[in-house]
Amino acid sequence: MIPRPSLHNPLSGSYELAAGATVSGPLIEPVRTALPGLDLLPGDDGAVATRFDPALGAEAYRLSVGSRGVEIAAGGREGAFYAAQSLRQLLPADAYRFGAGQAWNVPGVRIEDAPRFAWRGLHLDVARHFFPKREVMRLLDLMAVHKLNRLHLHLADDQGWRVESRAYPLLHEVASHRPRTATHFYREPEAYDDIPHGGYYTLADLAELAAYARSKAVTIVPEIDVPGHASAILAAYPQLGATGEPHEVLDRWGISPAILSPLPPTVEFLTTIFDELLGALGETPYVHIGGDEVVLDQWAASAEITAYGESLGLAGANDLQAWFLRQLADALAERGARAVVWDEAFVSGRLRQDTVVMPWRGMNVGRRAAAAGHDVVATPVFPLYFDYAEAASAEEPMAIGETITVADVAAFEPAPAEWPEEERARVIGVQAQLWSERVPDGRVLDYRLWPRTCALADVAWGGGEGFAERLEAHLGRLDALGVEYRPQAGPRPWQRRRPHRPGVVDVTAVLARIDGMTHDAESTRPSV
Fold first, then answer.
1. Of 123, 172, 197, 229, which one is the catalytic site residue?
2. Which pTM was predicted?
3. Angle at Cα 132 formed by Cα 429 and Cα 237, nearest 5°?
4. CA distances, 112 to each of 7, 50, 335 (Å)
5. Can 293 be counted among the known catalytic residues?
6. Which one of 116, 395, 401, 451 is at 20 to 30 Å from 259 when CA atoms are compared?
7. d(C-alpha 57, C-alpha 78), whole Å
8. Residues 470-493, buried b or exposed e (16+ Cβ, 10 A)?
9. Can you count the helices (H) and strands (E) in the chain?
10. pLDDT tens track for 398-446
C-alpha cells in the first residue's frame, strides 16, 4: 500500500498533518511491545509507543507522529505491523536500504487506516518453473512492504510436483523434475531446451516459509490442484490414475488428459498429503484443491469408475468430479482448514457452503458464487493474470497473452457498486495470478509482478485517486529494494529476452468464450 499522507479517502483511512518528530536508526529490529513483530527500531531522539485498542479491527491501526514521538494504536499484531510499514513509507527511499544508518525527520501526521479486503493475495506458480526458497522469502518481504497478506503457492501441476512427501517419496524423487522444457511459441512447431528442470521444498522448508510468512503478517495458502493437472503425480504413482497407464512429467505447456481416479485410494492418498502439508505449515486456514480444467473422458470410459459413481447415486462424470472435491473439502474441514477452488468447481456444484471460490473466468461467475452464499476472492484473467504481457510489443519478453497494464489493474473494481450489498459483502478479497510457463527465474518474476502488484495492493487496501502520481514516487523504494520492475516507459534492453509475439492470443475473444463456458455445468474442460 502506498501512503497518501495528505489524502482523505473513506475506504482507506483519513490523514491530517501534525507537528514533526525525528526517528533515527535502521528500521530492522522489533521494538519491545505487547504486540510482537513490529518491524521498527525507535531512535535516540524519539519514542515509539504502541498499545492495543480493542475497538479497532485486527488489521486496523492509528499512527500519530508529533512532538511526543510516534504513537501506534492497533487492533492486533497485524495492525501494528502495517503501522510500521506506513511509518517506514514516510521516510526517504533510502530507508529501504540495509545499513543506511542516518537520521531522518518524519513528517508530522495522523493516520487512521484499515484494509477494505481481508484477502489481499498473490499467486505464484512454482510447478511450471520452480522458484527456490530464497525467492519465495524475498517475495514475502516485498508483499509485507505492500501490506499483502496471502501467498497462494501452486505446488503441483502436470509439469512438476514441488513438496517432499515422506509417505509417498516418489513424489519428490520422480515427480519433481522433468528432462526438458518447451521453448516454442504458441501454435508453432515444438522445440525444447533439453535442460533438466526441477526442485522441491522439504517439509522443513515449508515450516520455515510458513513461520517467515507469519512474521510478515502473511498466510501461505498451499494448492494441490486435482483431479486434473495430474501428470507429475501419475509419473510417480500411475496406480492412482483413471487408467493405471504409465505417465511422464509433462515437458510442454498446456493441459494433459491425465486425471486422478476418484476411487477411495486416491482420497486416502490426498488426505495423507494434506496431513503432511498441514503438519509442516502449522495453522493453515485455507488449502486450495484446484478443480479446474479437468478432462473427464477417462472417467467416463472406465467401467470401474462409472460403476462407482452409480453406486453413489451420481448421474455421470461431472457429478462424480463434484462429489470427489466435496470429499476433499470435508477432509480439510475435519483438519481445521477451509477448501478453496477455482470457479469450475462451483459450476459443477456440491460445494461445502464454507468453500472459497476463485472466479478466474470472470466476475460474472464470481457474482453467481457470491449470490449462492460463497466467499469469493476476485481472480479474473483480465486484469489479474500477470503472466500476460504489459504491451502488444515484440520488445516485451515472451508472454502468453496481452495486454494487462498497471492502469488496468488500478482501475479494477472487485465488487461493483451495482451488485446487491449481500453479494458485494461476499467478495472477501482480490488476488493476482502469476503462472510461470514464461517466467523461468527471479529476474523475470520481478518484471512480471512489479509495478502491477503495487496497483493490486492499492486496490486491495482501498484504492483512491492519484495512484499514478503515488506510484511514481514509490518506484524509488523499489529501486532501493533491488526490484527489477518493468519501467513505465517499457523494458530495459536486458529485460527483453526472447521477444513476445503480439496478437497471437485474442484476449477479448478468450474472455467472451470462457465467460460463456461458466454457464455450462459440464464446463470442466480446458478453456484457454
1. 229
2. 0.92
3. 90
4. 12, 14, 37
5. yes
6. 401
7. 9
8. bbeebbebbebbebbbbeeeebee
9. 18, 19
10. 998 889 999 999 999 999 999 999 999 999 999 999 999 999 999 999 9
